[in-house]
Amino acid sequence: MISVAVIGAGYWGPNLIRNFATCPDTKLVAVCDNNPKRLEKVLAPYPSVQGETDLDTLLKRSDIDAVAIATPVRTHAPFALQALEAGKHVLVEKPFAHSVADAERMVALADKQGLTLMVDHTFVYSPAVRKVKELLDKGELGDLCYIDSVRINLGMFQHDVNVVWDLAPHDLSIVDFLLNRLPKSLSAVGASHTKGSIELEDVAHLNLDFGDGLLASFHVNWLSPVKVRHFIVGGFKKSIVYNDLDVSERVRVYDRGITTSEDPEARRGILINYRTGDVWSPHIDQHEPLQTMVKHFAECVRDKKKPLTDGESGLRVVRVLEAAERSIKAQGGRITL
């Protein structure tokens, strides 16, 4: 079993704590947080797990093989670098880091130390997303035309990052998993509708160009009165709609689209026909993505395997996020990656 400590017992920490505590391949030995009352509350169901308020003390412990970091975004890199220096394997909550420079330092240090570095892109471990990847790799969709994603809800507002850094990593990590490459360029626009010492965008639109006619668009929003989680992958042969809120049919495959043929007598020299075929929902396994992710992390540490969501994948997503932020500040100026 891999001995693990979780750093951060706030919003996402309890989810990691629960999954590390129940995973058969891991032993949760400690949780670190600078708030003693929060520690006491979160550890009530786990009497054998020790609470720790000092990170330096935690990282000096020889009975800890790995740490999972679930703290504010700007602390991800400093804490991860400190843990890697201490010889600990590291799992980092999304987004991987708050800058490309920090992400590159993390990847370089993990390679130097020979340690596992992984990012918690939870949706990559979702059975529904795995099914989309399977259908895509089988060629069911044909060449891709577009990807459209909508991830909107009312709140929850962050105090250190804008809506792009908060919500977009989910869908960007899915696209990175499906395509395994960076876009050629992107543009982004966003707006802040709250007043404070720092104005953070709460609504944003991203447009990514992957070349060969493949465009991807993302709408992220903290102000929507309804919660929407729609992800559409459009191909020349078929298309897929992934709706994470539809518990009975999360993935639907549509045999609908167009066919084109050249016709010299047509007004524009091209004839478009509409194809309407079957709609079907493949079987999706039912298991918690976070438990799959935790188990995969333990396997990678134990067997020295390359994680599916390794530091490089985290770095790619951060490159897009940082470029999107620059584009927003340039009022939608296109950034080449």
Task: Outline the secondary-structure elements.
Elements: E1 2-7, H1 13-22, E2 26-32, H2 36-42, E3 50-52, H3 55-59, E4 66-69, H4 73-85, E5 89-93, H5 100-113, E6 117-120, H6 127-137, E7 144-154, H7 163-179, E8 185-191, E9 203-211, E10 214-221, E11 223-235, E12 239-243, E13 251-262, E14 270-280, H8 289-303, H9 311-329, E15 335-336
Parallel strand pairs: 1-2, 1-4, 2-3, 4-5, 5-6, 7-10
Antiparallel strand pairs: 7-11, 8-9, 8-15, 9-10, 11-12, 12-13, 13-14
Helix pairs in contact: 1-8, 4-5, 5-9, 7-9
Task: Describe this protein's structure.
The protein is an alpha/beta fold. It folds into 2 domains: 2-122 and 289-310, NAD(P)-binding Rossmann-like Domain (Rossmann fold, 3-Layer(aba) Sandwich), CATH 3.40.50.720; 124-286 and 319-336, Dihydrodipicolinate Reductase, domain 2 (2-Layer Sandwich). Helix content is 33%, strand content 32%. The protein contains 9 helices and 15 strands. It has helices at 13-22, 36-42, 55-59, 73-85, 100-113, 127-137, 163-179, 289-303, 311-329, and strands at residues 2-7, 26-32, 50-52, 66-69, 89-93, 117-120, 144-154, 185-191, 203-211, 214-221, 223-235, 239-243, 251-262, 270-280, 335-336. It has a 9-stranded mixed beta sheet. Helix 2 (36-42) links the parallel strand 2 and strand 3. The protein is globular, with a radius of gyration of 22 Å.
